[in-house]
């Protein structure tokens, strides 16, 4: 990619792949739309109350889209209530039961997660596609290395990028042949190498939006690392329009990690981005415990801002120069508070956390008021 010298920091520019835009309910995916973050419920969908409670938690964490599994009639029956009460668009996860797809579309799904070639006869495929058209649903084609078609495995010998992309394009052709183009595709594997290679090939073969994910990535720590490596490299290259971090952990953690990946690449800005040193013998306060406390107490902030928490004056002033708010450890039990990159006032270590939380909340309120004012002025 050629350097863009019109940008203040051209080495931070990410040129996103040009994809067509689709809609998942009221959320745009692809094109110039922000990269969306999604997760999936793990409650029994037939238990509408429990599922809605988990969806609320995901909404509060910032989820743009939530996927819900619909394996049986009890689930699609409850889905109607769930879709009516949810504040974000829902994707109904359908694998082989074409009737569940029709029922979910009728019940209010914004998107169906299916593989058209896996749901039976041409008539069944047509019926599901017509249900999606009639009810304004988009479709996600979900190819997984662990469930490739037997014919492809026999021909290629094992799951490989070529087999995954061929599977995806075969499924896409079925939709295209029915004049249905509101679809996105994922080609996931638990191996980041296979995942990245498959998405790279797919990105060149078709212009639909791509749903990124390293599937079955693992527990919270290892899954976060694997997802950050796999999805981070693709996003850095401009590939990807919506993401799901697959963790064997609380689904809320998937949303948090997803936003952290996007924030690290400057692709989405939500909440407080805390820049903190790893701490050492020079620290003027307990950096690790301070950051842990601040992450917990600032989790409710959705307005984007940066906060530096540095233990001493070696790197503190320099980091504070680049952040909205900062605190740098000093001597005699106090440190310096920075506002907009400049030293503003001293603060004792004892009351530091409460003071920083207060400052962040004040700034968040100012940002919210400014955004609301701009919205009113634009009307």
Description:
- With 379 residues, this protein is of the alpha/beta class.
- The chain contains twelve helices and 15 strands.
- The protein has helices at residues 48-61, 73-85, 98-107, 122-134, 150-156, 161-177, 192-205, 220-236, 251-264, 287-297, 316-320, 352-378, and strands at 22-24, 27-29, 36-40, 65-69, 90-93, 111-114, 138-144, 183-188, 211-212, 242-244, 272-276, 305-310, 325-329, 334-339, 342-348.
- It has an eight-stranded parallel beta sheet. Strands 11-12-13-14-15 form a five-stranded mixed beta sheet. A two-stranded antiparallel ribbon has the order 1-2.
- Strand 12 (305-310), helix 11 and strand 13 form a beta-alpha-beta unit.
- Mean pLDDT is 94; it is low at 1-5.
Quick overview of this protein structure:
This protein has 379 residues and is an alpha/beta fold. The protein has helices at 48-61, 73-85, 98-107, 122-134, 150-156, 161-177, 192-205, 220-236, 251-264, 287-297, 316-320, 352-378, and strands at 22-24, 27-29, 36-40, 65-69, 90-93, 111-114, 138-144, 183-188, 211-212, 242-244, 272-276, 305-310, 325-329, 334-339, 342-348.
Set out the fold topology.
Blueprint: E1 22-24, E2 27-29, E3 36-40, H1 48-61, E4 65-69, H2 73-85, E5 90-93, H3 98-107, E6 111-114, H4 122-134, E7 138-144, H5 150-156, H6 161-177, E8 183-188, H7 192-205, E9 211-212, H8 220-236, E10 242-244, H9 251-264, E11 272-276, H10 287-297, E12 305-310, H11 316-320, E13 325-329, E14 334-339, E15 342-348, H12 352-378
Parallel strand pairs: 3-4, 3-10, 4-5, 5-6, 6-7, 7-8, 9-10, 11-12, 12-13
Antiparallel strand pairs: 1-2, 13-14, 14-15
Helix pairs in contact: 1-2, 1-9, 2-3, 3-4, 6-7, 7-8, 8-9
